[in-house]
UniProtKB/TrEMBL annotation:
Catalyzes the reaction of cyanate with bicarbonate to produce ammonia and carbon dioxide. Residues 74-145 form the Cyanate lyase C-terminal domain. SUPFAM superfamilies: Cyanase C-terminal domain (SSF55234), lambda repressor-like DNA-binding domains (SSF47413). It catalyses: cyanate + hydrogencarbonate + 3 H(+) = NH4(+) + 2 CO2. It is an enzyme of class 4 (lyase). It holds the Pfam family CYNS_N. The keyword tRNA processing does not apply. Keywords: Lyase. It comes from Lipingzhangella halophila. It comes from the Bacteria. The active site is at R87, E90, S113. This is Cyanate hydratase. SMART domains: Cyanate_lyase.
């Protein structure tokens, strides 16, 4: 079973059972964003994690096997056109060069790791409408010659 097929079954089962992504992550004892990403096919899970998901969502063994497989990371152009996802691309197109300059000014020549990395999403109340707070927390990797 492909990871995208497994993701569709997982999403449907999650909705059918009335479970939030947060509840599933809590059951697995894993970070929320990582868990959601893994269940959507972007990270491999351990056998224990895959079995826990299978049992929690009452899915068959083929889904668990898919969750353990190495993914082909990234997204197709159709997914990138989704308005929520596209806004991240837009924000990086506008602010990416400034962020790069500020990282280099603060840390020196290097990059932020997306492998040794954590990401979190939170809601912050605001009188003009709630704010979405996304935190990228990546290890600085300096270029060494």
């Amino acid at each position: 079973m492909s990871k995208s097929e497994a993701a569709e079954l997982i999403t449907a089962a999650r909705v059918r059972r009335g479970l939030s992504w947060a509840r599933i992550a809590e059951e697995l004892g894993a970070p929320l964003v990582w868990t959601t990403s893994a269940l959507l096919g972007q990270h491999p899970m351990t056998r224990e994690q895959a079995d826990a998901v299978r049992k929690l969502l009452d899915l068959d063994e083929a889904v668990a096997e898919s969750l353990e497989q190495q993914p082909s990371r990234g997204t197709d152009p159709q997914v990138m056109a989704d308005p929520t996802i596209y806004r991240f691309s837009e924000a990086l197109a506008v602010y990416g060069p400034a962020l790069k300059e500020l990282i280099h000014e603060e840390f020196g020549d290097g990059i932020m790791s997306a492998i040794n990395f954590k990401v979190d999403v939170a809601r912050r109340p605001d009188p003009e409408g709630d704010r979405v707070v996304v935190t990228f927390d990546g290890k600085f990797l300096d270029y060494r010659w």
